[in-house]
Specification:
heterodimer; A: 169 residues; mainly beta; five-stranded mixed β-sheet; four-stranded antiparallel β-sheet; 15% helix; B: 284 residues; 3 helices; globular
């Protein structure tokens, strides 16, 4: 009974927010560049993408890992995406619907991630890459969302290249 | 000649005492291969246990210590593949449960002397509180003893950190973390509470030393004191393995000035408690 009650309340809140802004949810259009490397041993990095807002639990949007390993074996190394693991990863179950994805080769990747209703405010999108037999790097993109819109750019120096974010209603 | 022999004997005795006290240059520690695990029910850590001058390098003879493994569900589990080499004791921990494990090595040693037939005798090495009664012969008088308790710990977490293993036993010097030891971040303050026989251990010196001094050159020791509530807050500046030590041992007296008469060594307290933890700080 209580669960139904809170569901109804959430519904009301969503309708209320919808009245102020026509969109009920934002989409994060993201480009992430995995740099090409000339190294003796190369494995595509594990990557986690998550959204932080002060006072709220960090929200994992996408995680790239070896999803095809038998017995879910790729999940063992998820903790190497160290900041994300502490912020959010260790509380999740993998594979996770809409979050788990295969690792990606060097190049620029375009993603369109549903972010739910964000609301106005300051957010930080974080991309962290950890490469087997390689390094680890985090790129943070602070972004102010206003009226369902916002954008930010940043770039890594080793394990990540340019990262660009556009928030759209 | 006699004089030299006597002072050599004294030096040897001091060295023997120094090993378990931890307050001396030789430090006791555990070093886990890693501390943060995915929690898939079948992961392994390997842990070294050693005594050394510098952290974390093997340069003293290994001692036959018995590690105790506390599992997240509150039970005691067995370590595996335990072996003693010349310079270290090593063992494996099989992480089959989710949550935080604690590995502890507890030491106890009693030092002392007694008079028998007009001669002063020292207690032999290896006497513990349990075996003390048998170590003192009938007819001994002027029995003087000093007990040293050591607790050396490290922590491993599979998945989300849990707190079950931090329940204090009320015996000796123990740590109750307010900041989880497997949730430490460089540059962020971490708070730990220390209890002596279950009560806040106030005003005790806390030393925190980062591993790797052999290559960094600088010790960069962090010194602090526990408050009236037994709590201490430290900020660990960088990623890496840290050695934390709290002791009830009195500070060693400053060396006598050149030419000044050497006073007698301060009396050894009846009991000394030492706590050591190895903490891994993962970077920001």
């Amino acid at each position: 009974m209580q669960i139904r009650h809170s569901l109804i309340l959430t519904g009301v809140a969503a309708v209320g927010a919808g009245a102020a802004s026509p969109a009920l949810a934002e989409t994060l259009d993201l480009t992430v560049t995995i740099p090409r490397m000339s190294v003796a041993e190369y494995h595509s990095p594990y990557v986690a993408i998550w959204l932080e807002k002060e006072g709220a639990a960090p929200r994992t949007l996408s995680v790239w890992y070896d999803i095809d390993k038998p017995k879910n074996g790729g999940t063992k190394w998820l903790r190497d995406i160290r900041l994300w693991w502490r912020a959010s990863g260790r509380t999740l179950q993998f594979p996770a619907d809409g979050i788990s994805g295969a690792t990606r080769a060097p190049g620029t990747h375009k993603l369109s991630l549903p972010a739910g209703k964000l609301g106005n405010g300051a957010y930080t999108l974080v991309v962290e890459a950890a490469r087997e037999s390689g390094g680890r790097e985090t790129v943070r993109l602070p972004v102010t969302v206003s009226g369902g819109k916002g954008s930010a750019k940043a770039a890594g120096t080793a394990e990540l290249g340019a990262v660009a974010l556009t928030v759209k209603p | 000649m006699t004089k030299i022999r006597t002072s050599l004997l004294v030096a040897a005795a001091v060295a023997t005492l120094a090993i378990p006290t931890l307050a001396s240059a030789a430090r006791m520690w555990m070093l886990p291969s890693e501390t943060m695990f995915a929690g898939n029910g079948d992961e392994w850590a390997t842990v070294d246990f050693a005594i050394s001058s510098d952290l974390f390098y093997f340069d003293h003879p290994a001692q036959p210590f018995e590690p105790v493994l506390f599992a997240p569900d509150g039970t005691q589990a067995q370590v595996e593949n335990k072996a003693k080499g010349r310079l270290r004791t090593t063992f494996d921990v099989h992480l089959t449960q989710k949550g935080t494990y604690k590995v502890a090595v507890l030491t106890n040693a009693v030092f002392g002397s007694y008079m028998l037939n007009g001669e002063e005798k020292r207690l032999p090495r290896g006497v513990t509180a349990e075996t003390l009664a048998q170590a003192i012969p009938a007819g001994a008088t002027d029995v003087k003893t000093s007990e040293t308790n050591g607790r050396v710990e490290t922590f491993l977490t599979a998945g989300v950190p849990t707190d079950t293993v931090f329940k204090p036993t009320g015996k000796g010097l123990e740590m109750v973390p307010l900041t989880h030891p497997n949730d430490l971040v460089s540059g962020e303050a971490a708070t730990f509470q220390f209890l002596l026989d279950g009560k806040p251990a106030a005003n005790l010196p806390v030393a925190v030393i980062a591993g790797g001094v052999r290559y960094s050159g600088a010790l960069k020791e962090i010194s602090a004191k526990t408050g009236a509530d037994g709590k201490v807050t430290v900020t660990l500046p960088d990623s890496g393995m840290y050695w934390l030590n709290v002791t009830t041992a009195p500070p060693r007296p400053a060396p006598a000035a050149e030419g000044a008469p050497k006073g007698p060594p301060p009396p050894r307290p009846a009991r000394i408690d030492n706590y050591v933890a190895t903490l891994e700080v993962l970077g920001a």
